[in-house]
Amino acid sequence: MSSAARKRRTLRSAFPVLEQPLQPIHRHVYEANLRNSNSCHKKYMELREQVMKGGGENAMTRHTQRNRKLLVRDRLRLLLDDEDFLELSLFAGLGLPYGDIPSAGCLTVISNCMMTINDLWCVFIANDATVKGGTAYPITVKKQLRAQEVAIQNRLPCVYLVDSGGAFLPLQSEIFPDKNQGGRTFYNEAIMSAMKIPQVAVVCGSCTAGGAYIPTMAEEAVMVHRIGTIFLGGPPLVKAATGEEVTPEDLGGARLHAEVSGCVDYFAWEEKEAYDYTRNIISTLNFQLPEEEEEENEEKMKKRKSEEEPLYSSDELLGLAPRSYNYSLDVKLVVSRLTDGSRFQEFKARYGTTLITGFAKIQGHLVGIVANNGELSTQAALKGSHFVQLCDQRDIPLLFLQNTAPAAALTLSPTQAEINSNRLKAQGSMMSAVACASVPKITVVIGGCHGADSYAMCGRAFDPNFLFLWPNARVALTAPGHSGSLLPPESEQEDDLNRRLKEESSAFYSSGRLWDDGVILPQHTRKVLGDCLDIIKQQQYQLSTEKLQSTLLRM
């Protein structure tokens, strides 16, 4: 690296400081928001406690004592250096029509905490066999596919910790036949290998039926003696079909697949040895990482811990998380509690003021911020379109802080109709800019996620690299209490619709169905964004060529 390039890298931001202390005028709204945030936090912790129990005490005891296997979180602790990883979709699988499936029956985390690798981020997809015996439900498949999508989009190696009994047969019609269901997992595995995104599997339990293809399609696979098995049908199926009695070990154990079939590449006597092999495998990936000298890394870490922190406490974000759209405060109060040194270079500050746009750094990473500060007006949408294209031209990642307004009541006034038409065209322009922007995008829903405005603010349909919700967030076509804009006046359906909106628009309802990448606490937002931007930086050094390479085919 040239000295000039190194100097550019370490140059401190000269962006102006956002002077945004809390004022007495904010107190009433702030305290109302804080009470709501505390209630949401309590709900968050209750659900987290439920999820941490996996399939329940009896299932965990059976898993560890009778089956002599480690719990899934203990496996990750053993494989990774610490628990400082980014977990996706913690609450996926809760509150579904077919019951609660804690964490959707599998953990998906992103971490760079492996001692053998210097800052290489990887995706880990780990089955939790205490939940429904490790069988895959529709939400399990959806979570695995989302983790693979994150890996593809961000060029992250995949490590699978496989302990699965295959598909849950009573729901097979929602797991097997369609394009984006179970079979897509194997398609993605092959495509990622062709894109030079490494695929590594550890067989630390059952690999039955569809689960058997994960290790056999991986580039390298490790298998644990006695607890790991790979077969399409287990001993009961063999006996039913042929009358022959066979043990799981003889049918598909580690010795068979390491010595005879060649389905796996490494034989491990115990789980700890398997994870040592996994570390060593990842150390051979020869991934190109951002070229930063050791001194620069140390300097970056010092900055993160000292002068680059925001001037205001992140705990104040709890009172800035709006309990409803009418309780929204100036979004600059939020921005100043997320950015390095509370610095922000605002773009078009006097135009389209209901949308805030500008440049900042978060944990040393330059980002373009797009934040709702009211309804997305014609001027605001044009400004947003301009700014998004500007960031795309300069290869600057985009951060969307979304708090979109509920749908407004329609009017037949000719003047208002013209205003609505102009606004529609401007919003269409912004949607096109967001959809076509090739730079990485991160969305955090800090309040409302409503109507077409949410598309312009890079909602799920617009394919952000990551999308997170604050616990107070609402995700629906409109907000509870605003359904009158969608129904005839004084409709008998209005009360019922508002009741359903209140239930179905909550952040936890959304996250249970995997409409996002997880609910995060406001005070943790800066840390999560820092991790995401680190991941994105690695991706920028790993973009594959247009032409796919041949996938690695096992013998």
From TrEMBL:
Its catalytic activity?
A: 3-methylbut-2-enoyl-CoA + hydrogencarbonate + ATP = 3-methyl-(2E)-glutaconyl-CoA + ADP + phosphate + H(+)
Biased composition (Basic and acidic residues) is annotated at 299-308
Q: Where is the CoA carboxyltransferase C-terminal domain?
A: 309-555
**What Pfam families does the entry give?**
Carboxyl_trans
Report residue spans for region: Disordered.
288-308
Locate the CoA carboxyltransferase N-terminal domain: which residues?
37-297
What GO cellular-component annotations does this UniProt entry give? methylcrotonoyl-CoA carboxylase complex; mitochondrion
Indicate the secretion signal residues: none
Gene Ontology MF annotations: methylcrotonoyl-CoA carboxylase activity
* Protein name, entry field: methylcrotonoyl-CoA carboxylase
